[in-house]
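Schema walkthrough. Field components (list of strings):
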Amino acid sequence: MTYCLGIRLNSGIVFASDSRTNAGVDNISTYRKLFVFETPGERVICVLTAGNLAVTQAVISQLEEGLDGDTDGDTLYNVSSLTNAAQLVGRAIRNVHDRDQKYIEAEDGSASSTFILGGQIKGRRMRLFQIYSAGNYIEATEDTPYIQIGESKYGKPILERVVTPEMELLQAAKCALVSIDSTVRSNVAVALPIDMMVMNVDECKVAMQQRIQPEDPYYLQISKEWGEGLGKLFNDLPAPAWFDETS
Amino acid sequence: MTYCLGIRLNSGIVFASDSRTNAGVDNISTYRKLFVFETPGERVICVLTAGNLAVTQAVISQLEEGLDGDTDGDTLYNVSSLTNAAQLVGRAIRNVHDRDQKYIEAEDGSASSTFILGGQIKGRRMRLFQIYSAGNYIEATEDTPYIQIGESKYGKPILERVVTPEMELLQAAKCALVSIDSTVRSNVAVALPIDMMVMNVDECKVAMQQRIQPEDPYYLQISKEWGEGLGKLFNDLPAPAWFDETS
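Field assembly_structure (string):
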């Protein structure tokens, strides 16, 4: 399993991912799922991956080096727009599927994979996309300014309640950590370390990128305060007055 | 979709379910999914249902009137133990599957259904079971004293954080409402009214049963206080000190 999310604010984008992969519960590993393609000041593009690891690694490789069998030489370092970048991911997925899908499915595996892609190229708009396993894509909007892939349900309620395009970047980064923490607690197939990247609008470069380890003091602090706060909030809610338990 | 849960405490059991059914988003209805089989003082058994509505209705009918083609005359009103009750549900599911499953699947439908069954028969232990579509079952334990069926993910974190066997019944009823409220907010296929039943240990009868409508004042109050409290709790968490946003 996997949990990745991107939150597009007016002031920038926050990207975050867990790093656990598993081929059955007896085969668990740590793999990076957050990839940055940057020419500082000219472009910054971040790609997050979920799904079949062989497929996503083959896609990332083609995004860096150019599509297999393609003489155009398109990579995420030279595409002219974010839309073209999303389409390039779609073409790379289809390329890998054409080559591998029937063999994967013959072994009862799934070749399914999904991607988040966001960023900005100088002189163009900052954008955030979700690319499906079929290679088509949707864009985050004002109404729903975040995109999740993988195990999205446990971490969605906090996003729905607090994320707006006007939110500050660091508040959104905090929200991403709370969202991942909620997921980690309920699904052992999602786990730290967390990879995170934050970019400011119109800078076309990484503002902050780091790997947050399980013993990270800030992560431990918000995980503890959030958990204790939820317990207190629940206790403070009035109990129903439906019947007398002592009767 | 559906969301039902049962919470087994030392002092009793809380059962709760939503009441939305949907055959596509253009075909939404309200159906009861919580059924009580009671001979006050002698037995109280509650069954909650999720999955194919035709299957679950056929199962409930057989639990009331006896299995089709079965001359034993077993119903939930005369089985001698809760284990036998769980097995009766399993036999009823298999009975319906034997008759209908291949025809449902020929129409690309799913005959899958799951059940929660809990209660107590005089002189025996109070128990809570989950019965799978295959007709086999598991029992709630001290370690995991609750059982969920249907859309379980959105409402699971609050259960994990606060439910213990020592919890008071009315606190658990409050917890069930918060859990359903979180689910209703994130999945339109889960909706009010909520059916709820509470039983005290060793009474072998219903202590409280009611249908909670969307305009119920207590439900509205805890939904509002929980939502506002989460927002405040999030805002009160410290922001990360990773970089200066104004730089």
